[in-house]
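[audit] Reproducing an earlier prediction to check determinism. Same input, same settings, fresh worker. If the tokens differ from the archived copy the diff job will pick it up downstream; this log only records the rerun itself.
[audit] input (286 residues):
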Amino acid sequence: MITPFTETGEVDHERAWRLARYLSDHGSDGLVVTGTTGESPTLCTEEKLALYRTVVEAVENRDTKVVAGTGTYDTAESVELTKKAVEAGVDGIMAVTPYYSKPGQEGLVRHFEAIADASEVPVIIYNIPGRTGRLIEVGTLQRLARHPRIVATKDAVMDIDFTSQTVAQVPELAVYSGQDSYTLAMMAVGAVGVISVVSHLAGDQVAEMVNAAASGDYTRARELHLSLLPLCEACFLETNPQPVKAAMSALWEPVGEPRLPLVPASQETVAAIEKAMANLRPVVGG
């Protein structure tokens, strides 16, 4: 979930509340708050905790889980934020690979175990070497899966062989796609769904594709995948979440500009997103 900002750059809680409801109404059965798409590196702890409370309230009494992105490159900070996020009422934690510091595999195990030890709710391990500079190896995932609260991995490795090895060798972990364009291929080898960016714009189609694949209807899932592919590509023409924020402002409600060092997406990117959306297949019954 993106983080809406006001025109003066503060977190827009009213719009975040409405966005959470909108996503919940359009296919999302879970919301990751203050992940990378939510511009977590530019949010202070107080802003993150306030967002958790806002989104938890927005989806109260709905069958929508709230997952807090609490991982940083500082284990102690991640542990403290995890504890406070649980107190704020979230249903789960997502912890990204520590970025920039590039710890070895033993350091990764100790980092994630410390976060899971501090949590009273399930934990998703986020594996995205393209942004963090470090791959969480399959053997490391096997070790982490022994922890009772580490239950899933968000796989943005963008390597189907790696996903296949994870599914085969770490069956205890549910695997979620971390890259929209890879979702169908990953589900074909055993992933269970996607933690999505394009669901802001085409949540109903993403949900139908995932449900079709999960039920074995790969003909329908493939149709939706091919329909969504231009949108997936357009949403990553520039650094995420620049494109999706600009598109949401153009097509939904104003969600503000990204905080520096990110900048607003170009009009060409927004036009590419609008063109891709015009060619989406309608959902069944839609």
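[audit] rerun output stored. Observation attached for the diff report: The beta strands are 30-33, 65-69, 92-96, 123-127, 150-155, 174-177, 193-194.
[audit] end
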